[in-house]
Amino acid sequence: MNDAAAILEARKGEVGGPYARYVLGVLVLVYVLNFIDRQIISILAEDIKADLGVTDADMGFLYGTAFGVFYSLFGIPLGRLADMWYRGRLMTIGLSVWSAMTALSGFAQNFGQLAAARIGVGIGEATASPCAFSMISDYFPREKRATALAIYSSGLYLGGGLSLFIGGVIVQSWNSAFPGGGPLGLAGWQAAFLAVGLPGLLLALWVLTLREPLRGMSEGILSPPEPSPWPKFFTELSSVIPPFTLVQAARVGGRAFAVNLSGLVVVVLGATAMIMLTGDTLQWGAIGIGCYSVFSWSQSLKRRDPPTYQLIWGTPTFLLAILGFGSIAFVTYAVSFWSAPYAIRTFGADPAIVGLIIGGVGAAGGFIGVIAGGRLADWAKSRWPAGDILVATLGVLIPAPLMLIVYTTESLTIFYLAFTPMAIINSCWVGIAAATSQNLVLPRMRGAATATYFLGTTLVGLGLGPYFAGKMSLVTGSLGMGILSLLVAAPVTLVCLWVVWRQLPQAEATRVERAATAGEGRAAQA
User: Fold this and answer.
1) How far apart are CA 64 and CA 458, in angstroms?
2) DSSP codes joined into one string, 2-22
3) How much is the pLDDT for 524?
4) What stretch of H or E contains 452?
5) What integer is the mean pLDDT of 413-428?
6) Do residues 451 and 442 make contact, with C-beta atoms less than 8 angstroms apart?
7) pLDDT tier at 7 (50, 70, 90 boundaries)?
């Protein structure tokens, strides 16, 4: 204890200090690039559809499901690795992988190749936020955490906005200069993927220089380093990725295998029913893989680390927060992806101008909204135990009428004017959701909590939202109606957040006690 206290005393000045702010700045750049590489496919959608002959539902699959399912699944073992290994090194590896796969997207010649590259981008990007959330939570105290995580999360909007501007300019310039295809026969959308993918390899070297914070130093709960992280990582990986999930459950034997197999049967039946209903085999096959893998991981975690399981899967407040924020992401991810194609298709707008305006509004508005939301949440939480959840709820209620205006108006000017406040308010919940996931667990569990948080925002939000809007666009014959159909998620969001608002203070106050009851102190050595 004396050694731990001395170490904490020696480095306590780093918490919230200049170096902490420097690290936060670098992590924001990483997240900006993360979303440039993720989001650029939005402004390229019409060109990709024309070249590869795909539908709106296919584009929703490429942007959302192909990326999102594997992002969320690999986020589980990689999030756990972030709890045990050097977070800066892990982020460096992931950044290199997703940047290379983004560049490779530029050489895709068909739907399958582009889908495979998007899966690779998703796997690489799965390292970023578990590492970043954990590092930021160690570098900033609880009372400033929502603001710090909101600043980090602003990279989502800055990157998303920049991607539309960069992609629109590159596509228009490239196609004008090379109407029949440029060097190596590349079309404009392919050149755009290359242009945004390669710089990430340089940024990865910068990330590698960041100093690793002591785990738990912002709260005075020093967690010792894990002496052998890799065996535990591969165990975690095998608990998520089929068919290794069945092999691991079979090794445990007895009830564990029966429960795992039963879960697989239920998911297969559900996915088969959705495939028969929609005809979209890839979409529901991928979602089925995701659902089964999540179930398998939760059951494995219950056996291997009961305290972590208890604070995440055994805490209704945590699960309802994940579902509630995931249902918000269901809307916001789809709106983020489809707004640029909607403006181009509905108003005949120039892609470069659309990228400039929607990208600029999305970047500036999202940045303002997420920072303001984080600051307002910290202020509200200092006065009411769950005041931050009230702020998030406003971010659901206020944008709904603005969406009705944006996607029904016949005026491009009104579209832009209403889109601006919608973009600002739509983003206020992001830092609140991130801070909630971190505040409900112990320091050594933050990577796992982040991975679980992204199961909601990615598997539910990204995996279903863009596809749902695209599918409804095909059914109704109107992309605007497809986007507005997303509002069916609003009642789910409001009910979940209301329950979280009531239960959050008690759940936060009892986390140490509940972890101890589940065996904390023994599980870490297992």
Assistant:
1) 8
2) HHHHHHHHHHGGGTTSHHHHH
3) 41
4) helix 446-454
5) 91
6) no
7) low
- Length of the chain as a residue count: 526
Q: Where are the alpha helices (DSSP H) in 83-209?
A: 87-105, 111-125, 128-139, 142-177, 188-197, 199-207
Tokens standing for residue 239:
């608990």
**What angle do the packed helices 387-397 and 412-426 form, to 10 degrees?**
170
Token representation of residue 514? 């509940």
Structure tokens at 311: 């604070």
178-210 pLDDT per residue, tens: 988 788 889 999 999 999 999 999 999 999 999
Q: DSSP character for 523?
A: G
Opening angle at CA 27, ends 21 and 33, nearest 5: 145
C-alpha distances in Å from residue 439, one per residue of 15, 16, 444, 512: 17, 17, 12, 11
Two tokens, residue 273: 């029913």
- Of 431, 419, 435, the closest CA to residue 365 belongs to 419
The reported pLDDT for the residue numbered 226 is 79
Whether 336 and 457 have beta carbons less than 8 Å apart is answered as: no
DSSP 181: -
Is 102 within 8 Å of 37 (Cβ atoms)? Answer: yes
Instruction: pLDDT band for 349, please (50, 70, 90 cuts).
Output: confident
Return d(Cα 67, Cα 1) in angstroms, integer: 45
Cα–Cα dist 156/162, whole Å: 10
Measured CA distances, 504 to 73, 121, 166, 392, 494 (Å): 26, 34, 41, 14, 15
ω before 243 within 30° of 0 (cis)? yes
Q: How many CA atoms lie within 13 A of 367 on its CB side?
A: 14
Q: Encoding tokens for residue 191?
A: 């050149």
Cα dihedral 503→505→506→509 (10° resolution): 150
Q: What are phi and psi of 55, to 5 degrees?
A: -100, 175
Per-residue pLDDT, averaged over 362-370, amounts to: 84
Average pLDDT for the chain: 89
- Taking residue 279's Cβ as centre, other Cβ atoms within 10 Å add up to 11
pLDDT in tens, 225-278: 778 888 889 888 888 888 889 888 888 877 889 999 999 999 999 999 999 999
**487 pLDDT exceeds 50?**
yes
| Residue 402 token pair | 């603005």
Query: Phi then psi for 44, rounded to 5 degrees?
Result: -90, -5
How high is the pLDDT of residue 522? Answer: 54
Tokens found for residue 198: 């390669």
Nearest Cα neighbor of 381 from 438, 452, 445 is: 438
Rg (CA), the chain: 22
Rounded Cα–Cα distance for residues 263 and 293 (Å): 10
The pLDDT tens digits for 430-483 are: 888 888 888 899 988 887 888 788 788 888 898 999 999 999 999 999 999 999
Tell which residue, 465, 210, 482, has the closest CA to residue 327: 465
